[in-house]
Design brief:
Bound molecules: 3,6-anhydro-alpha-L-galactopyranose
Shape: globular
Radius of gyration: 25 Å
Length: 427
């Protein structure tokens, strides 16, 4: 055996050397990279980064990348937040749909007599004191004629009585239209969030009209995974779309605790809106992104991948609705986006993309003083039908305050001073 290994190793080394000689010959023959890029530039031997530009992204410049966009924000009109004293919170908007001549959105609303005590103090929560911003919440809805001014209508899904699924809080909903009926999927908490983590399964309600009345199905429709699996504790942010004649519900879970927590996105597929749903065998399908937001794009599906994870602040694309690749890297990406997705339920083979939606800011107040979230509007150009060069700019200049707000803390200043001292003492 040993006798064989040496010649094999030599052959390996020689072939590697030959390969790199060949490569350096190829690269020296092709001359310097051209100033003007033409169709044949991509045929050169390319560095890894240039190879990605030419062969991975849909265009070499973000200007022509339909899945690249800036995001522009506008304050919404029509929502009352009790003078922003922290007792009313609105967050986690659903995708927006257009029905009966107006836009509809559903969202988590907390209207509690006092502010939340915070996840860390969840033990101090009770029937009227919320733990987190989304504890003791209900699902409400609002309508709008222009997407800027909204009229809050009423509660869509109240908390059911104990011990029904969601008795503690019903939150983070999204909408499906299927065969003329409407389905809201949402997180159904059976304990105050923060007690052990953010544990909950997903349940649903259905209605004949987007205005309700909504009938709760009174059971879990997307089960947590079996013990030891990545989604054993939480199924969050259920997000339904229609594809291939079936219901696709994407969701997220958090795993790997007590190590640094990893957030991933999964998918369940079903024929009936009330289940059973089958988890995709390749779950988790995404490795990053806190909330879940997708839209059909061309033959595939695109995902807005927001905070958390190595690939945060990217738009990703899965031609087969399963295997996601990075399509662009963005900035100021909307948090918990609920886009207006006109073709969410049409089973399209040519998704047109999105140009606006609602998202939230969770820091509309201050911790322990008036913590609450607000809904906002974002606009973008992730659409095949719009061509807005302003949305395709890169290198937006943020106000100086945005940067200085991210200042060093005391401990960091001390560390830096120690490093300086160490250097000075060596002289
Ligand atoms: C959100 C969502 C889910 C989580 C919490 C409320 O942004 O990811 O809904 O449970 O945070």
């Amino acid at each position: 055996m040993k006798k064989l290994l040496l010649p094999l190793l030599l052959i390996g080394i020689i072939s590697c050397e030959n390969q790199s000689k060949k490569e350096s010959k190829e690269t020296s023959n092709q001359g310097a990279f051209p100033y003007i890029i033409t169709d044949s530039t991509k045929n050169r031997k390319l560095s890894a980064a240039m190879d990605r530009s030419f062969n991975h992204y849909s265009a070499i410049h973000p200007r022509n990348n339909e899945l690249y966009s800036q995001f522009k924000y506008t304050e919404l009109k029509g929502f009352n937040y009790n003078n922003h004293d922290g007792t009313i919170s609105r967050r986690d908007p659903s995708k927006v749909i257009f029905e009966n001549g107006k836009y509809y959105v559903w969202y988590t609303k907390r209207d509690t007599p006092v502010i939340p005590v915070g996840a860390r103090n969840a033990d101090k929560s009770n029937d009227t004191i919320p733990s987190t911003d989304w504890d003791l919440a209900e699902i409400w809805y609002a309508t709008s004629e222009n997407g800027f001014t909204w009229k809050e209508q009423s509660v869509a899904v109240p908390r059911p009585p104990k011990p029904e699924v969601g008795w503690r809080s019903v939150t983070t909903t999204d909408i499906l239209k299927w065969k003329g009926k409407y389905y809201l999927y949402y997180q159904g908490f059976m304990e105050a969030s923060g007690k052990r983590g953010d544990y909950c399964p997903v349940t649903a309600s259905y209605a004949d009209s987007p205005d309700g009345p909504w009938t709760p199905v009174g059971k879990i429709v997307i089960e947590n995974g079996p013990e030891g699996s990545w989604d054993q504790y939480a199924i969050h942010d259920p997000y339904p779309l229609v594809h291939d004649g079936k219901i696709y519900i994407y969701y997220k879970s958090a795993f790997n605790r007590p190590n640094p927590v990893w957030v991933g996105g999964g998918l369940v597929i079903g024929d009936d809106p009330l289940g059973p749903f089958k988890k995709h065998p390749l779950n988790p399908l995404t490795s990053s992104g806190h909330e879940v937001s997708l839209f059909p794009f061309k033959e595939g599906v695109a995902a807005i991948t927001v905070k958390d994870g190595t690939e945060h602040f990217t738009i990703q694309y899965a031609k087969d609705w399963v295997n996601f690749e990075i399509a662009s890297v963005c900035e100021l990406v909307p948090i918990a986006p609920g886009p207006y997705v006109p073709d969410a339920f049409t089973d399209t083979k040519d998704g047109r993309g999105i140009s606006w939606g609602l998202s939230h800011f969770v820091n509309a107040g201050k911790y322990e003083i008036n913590p609450h979230s607000i809904l906002t509007r974002f606009d973008c150009d992730l659409s095949q039908d719009i061509d807005d060069p302003v949305m395709k700019e890169t290198g937006i200049r943020h106000d100086l305050e945005v940067y200085y707000k991210q200042g060093l803390n005391k401990k960091q200043f001390e560390r830096i001073e120690k490093e300086n001292e160490k250097l000075r003492s060596k002289e």
